[in-house]
Batch of 3 targets.
Target 1
Amino acid sequence: MKDLKVLGTGCVSCRMLADLVEETAHQMGIEYTLTKVGEIDEITEYNVMSTPALVVNGDVKVSGRVPSADEIKDMIGE
């Protein structure tokens, strides 16, 4: 089971990343949980200064941009 988190305050890019992560994980057929973290205090606990960000099993994989679906597959598949 993959623990996926999208860090962001709800901007367009943050929502886009959340949708893309969910769609990609579903297409991959993996078991996952997806949590959207919008509280600034929680986001800074990950040392993320730019959102959106993707966290996979506790590791920040990308921040400050929306990666492509192929990049997300690589990040989730690791």
Note: The radius of gyration is 11 Å.
Target 2
Amino acid sequence: MFESLSKKLDRVFKNIRGQGVLTEKNMKESLQEIRVALLEADVNYKVVKQFVQDVQEAAVGQHVIDSVSPGQLIVKIVYDELVKLMGQENAPLVMAKTPPTIIMMVGLQGQGKTTSAGKLAAHLKKKGHRPLLVGADVYRPAAIKQLEVVAQQAGVEMFSLGEKADPVDTCVMARGEAQMRNCDVILLDTAGRLHVDEQMMGEVRRIHATVSPHEILFVANAMTGQDAVNSAKQFHAALPLSGVILTQMDGDARGGAAISLISVTGCPIKFVGTGEKLDALDAFHPRRMADQILGMGDIVSLVEKAQEVVDKEKAIKFQEKARKASWDLEDFLDQMQQVRKMGSFGDLMKKIPGMNKLMGPDMDFDEDELKYTEAIIRSMTIKERRNPNILNGSRRRRIAEGSGTDVPSVNRLLKDFEQSKKMIQQMMKGSKGKGMKMRGPMPPFMGR
């Protein structure tokens, strides 16, 4: 996400970094380039106009001190204004003092409402809650069946009165059902349409008036850009929206909807969908998003993901082996599997501060390389994994044939493995021999 905007802004900052001082001329040129970059990223033109004006006002009177370059100053100003534009801080869900908390999901058809309800249920379950998914969409064919499947995948409760029931009755009955099943959060999956119409709005208004939800979350597809912003405005005029869930943020390289929504609607973005799996729902943090847009990475999210999926016991054992350089290919295979739980390797690298600049605009990671590396190691016997020194020519030919690669690929993996052992041992020792703590698995090397 934001890949296109990040590249354009990086070019702006590179141009001004070459300037010795910040002048009215180069400031004006930079602001014009920022304006174009934001418009091309599909940010609402009114939002762009105000944003550029705010950056300009913040820059007026700023003095460039010796330790700060003009480019660094502009980056800081743009970063601060982006954070402000996107809501300053994460907006958490409002939870009822007396359960159950009722969360109403609204939005147009085809925006990912039902899937987002399932993702949010899975997210809440991890936080220790007992969600109840409620099928109140009686119009879309198989909508209730889809919600049943999603509920099963998320391992949460599901309730519906069927396709012939009145949606308002279904939502009312859900409260009693939640109490009987000991559920403390109710997620209402309401009906959508292909476009905003009075019948749909009338129904969601009746549900809102009857059950008084604690949260009304508008679900929109980030890839629809300004259409998502416009439909959010229409829903907000009919209902007191409390937040937004943006789906398919991983497929939106421009990111204009995310930047525009808060400013245009006044509603905070609470969550973003970043993939198809049920765990691909992230809380929206304006500062982290600004970090990503400006190529500063997102190390906080990376650590949080590692804490969520990594086996801490295995990480500690590997740390001890790494200090002594006694880890083998079997340990490495386990580490690689831990890393893959966290997502694609390329995405993980982009979360590391400074890595975007190190990688360059055209550099990308081929996930197939990891598959070949895994195939080579799996083609070895346990004895060979634990002692790679016994891998003579005939063994390497057998491994290459078994993994669908060739002998040079096996040789490269073994060479990289030995180099990695030395490098990681040095990292573990630290600059003054104090050692370092690993909070997750070591990233894998390319073995082909």
Note: The domain at 101-296 is CATH 3.40.50.300 (Rossmann fold).
Target 3
Amino acid sequence: MEDYAIKDIPHGIDISDILSRNSIDLTPDSLDRVVDAIGDAKYVLLGEASHGTHEYYSWRAKLSRKLIIEKGFSFIAVEGDWPDCYRVNRYVRNYNDAGRTAVDVLHSFDRWPTWMWANWEVAALIDWMKRYNEKQSRDKKAGFYGLDVYSLWESLNAIISYLDKVDKCAKEIAMKALRCFEPYNDKEGTTYAQATRYIPLSCEKDVLALLMEIVGKIPQYNTDHEAVLSAEQNAYVIANAEKYYRTMMSAGPESWNIRDRHMVSTLERIMRFHGKEAKGIIWEHNTHIGDARATSMSSEGMLNVGQLLNEQHKNEVYSIGFGSYEGSVVAGYKWGDEMHVVHAPKAAEGSWEHFLHGQSPRDRIIFMGDEMKKVFGRKVYGHRAIGVVYDPRHERRGNYVPSILPMRYDAFIYIDRTTALNPLHIKPNGHEIPETYPFGM
């Protein structure tokens, strides 16, 4: 990692005093201050520095519950596949035959990395959402949706199943798209991506024809209102997934940008579905929710969800990043690897996390107000980012994103030492169900 040391602070500035004035200890009661700071924001973005850390999920769940209860937020949207998350949505909104238990529903998440959403922390949250929604009218029930673009095959199968019941003609168009992809049937889309790199083929024409057919006929589909939304969204997933996989083999930022633009357009579609008073909570990695313009991503031609929402909805967005100094995390050593509980070492010297630990190794919420922007608003330091593939032996090379933290987030939740997430697909915590399940979050 380059040397992004916390340095060149103007003479006479007491950093400890500034941090003290702009932060509070992280406790359940301190979330009231966060809710107050969020104010009338319609988009609350909750990040994470890894996809496998218990505390990030549990604190996001605590805050999300408060926002749903106290601020009337309409839904939680996550960095997950639409078909899998739509099954969760039907469960939490108490549709008939939507699943017997939260654990049963979450077991349908079988795409690697399964632990991102098939975990006990999420099971606790969606059980709470189901119980909360039981007491609400239909228009007040909180939903749960997936924003991601990866589910090409799952979305094709879901839309064919739906059209088989409501529109046989449109089903034939969907079947034509399916036949185009059949020679490249792998769940991750890499076979199709590799084929388009070497020979001039594309299923783009077929998926766009399907999208136009579905969108044009949406007003005619008189089934339950969320099933229609799901059919439309699956059509967009198929079109954007084809585009994403077609570009993923080329160098450059385009596939990343296609994915984040898709997530924003999906979010806007969900907002419209929930009406003009809708408000959404978004759970994604820091690299998606923290404004890319305050990071090195921008110079590399990358944009993200946080940037797009801030550009399109100024003063209606509140983003909260998460980070920690050290701990354990669930990850794979390579793509598709079995899950491991990996020790994340102490943060590299010169990073934001190392700096915050050195100032005071306590958990806290830092509010990025005018004073923080004035002192740190031009300071570019490394900010830790751990993905689903993680090897701590190589951390210093690729796991820090140069960032201006006060410009990237509105608030930052720092947790000094963290612990690993509790996946459903392995026996957690020494074969015992963790105490976060079912309702102790």
Note: The CA atoms of residues 160 and 171 lie 6 Å apart.
